[in-house]
Amino acid sequence: MTTSTSPTSSSSPLTERLAAVREGVADAARAAGRSPAELTTIVVTKFHPASLVRELAALGVRDVGENRHQEAQEKAAELADLDLTWHFVGQLQSKKARQARRYASVIHSVDRFSLVDALAAREGEGDSDLDVFVQLNLTDDPARGGVADRDLEPLVEHVLAAPGLHLLGVMAVAPLGEEPARAFERVRAASGRVRSLAPEATSISAGMSQDYREAIAAGATHLRIGTAITGNRPELR
Ligand SMILES: *Cc1c(COP(=O)(O)O)cnc(C)c1O
Q1: 91 lines ligand 1 (CB under 6 A)
Q2: Which residues form the Alanine racemase N-terminal domain (predicted)?
Q3: Candidates 3.50.50.60, 3.30.410.40, 3.40.50.740, 3.20.20.10; correct CATH number of 13-92+106-230?
Q4: pTM value?
Q5: Which atom of ligand 1 is nearest to the CA of 210?
Q6: How many angstroms does the Cα of residue 10 sit away from the middle of ligand 1?
Q7: Using CA atoms, how far apart are residues 66 and 107, in angstroms rounded to an integer?
Q8: How far apart are CA 63 and CA 205, in angstroms?
Q9: Per-residue pLDDT of the chain (237 residues; tens, 9 = 90+)
Q10: Does ligand 1 come within 6 angstroms of the Cβ of 12?
Q11: C-beta of 223 in contact with ligand 1 (< 6 A)
């Protein structure tokens, strides 16, 4: 968006990208007849250093997202002095669930019974409730993460029966090769099915850098936006 050569704190590329996305989100909300205040923008900071998260916090960002447990755990520890809400948005191994619970306020990727059981509070534990989304797989590829459409209701019921978990709603990633608007209509329909079991679970976590406008039009409440704000991710080696 900008290749400014004089990055001052008032107009750095990061500041400008954040402002552009905030404006884009507000515009898309109004275009959909919704209030921007209904939307939570989570800045996905995976692969970026903790220092970038600190810059974002200085610019007013409170919700940050990560998709790898170890990286998230390290950053959350390093930035414990900031009042951030950590959202875990990636695939989570059941054996890491207890640890993720300690730093994450919200897990967006609950997609199987074993993970629900691992995240559930144990008897006598004083942990506060953990907010979760049930992730829906919009592809036919189980490796993409998410529960298959036909298994959505049993998983939702399992979450509702688990101690210490609070179901916010449904989460999804639009598949490559499908119009995002169409994919998000499927998510909206799934959200209706979730609400018929859990009327309070009205949230929809959907929309990334390339498709947040379509997601907002389809009712998304939680946007997970990375590169449009952070810039390109450093190469993974
Ligand atoms: C990386 C990631 C995002 C953000 O993607 P961008 O295209 O960089 O906005 C959102 N959701 C999940 C699950 C991710 O892994």
Answers
A1: no
A2: 21-234
A3: 3.20.20.10
A4: 0.94
A5: 7
A6: 26
A7: 10
A8: 13
A9: 444 444 445 689 999 999 999 999 999 999 999 999 999 999 999 999 999 999 999 999 999 999 999 999 999 999 999 999 999 999 999 999 999 999 999 999 999 999 999 999 776 666 689 999 999 999 999 999 999 999 999 999 999 999 999 999 999 999 999 999 999 999 999 999 999 999 999 999 999 999 999 999 999 999 999 999 999 888 765
A10: no
A11: no
Q: What spacing in Å lies between the alpha carbon of 124 and ligand 1's midpoint?
A: 36
Q: Tell me, using a 6 A CB cutoff, whether residue 90 lines ligand 1.
A: yes
Ligand 1 touching residue 67 (CB < 6 A): yes
Question: Which pair of structure tokens corresponds to residue 118?
Answer: 């691992």
Token match 């951030």: residue?
84
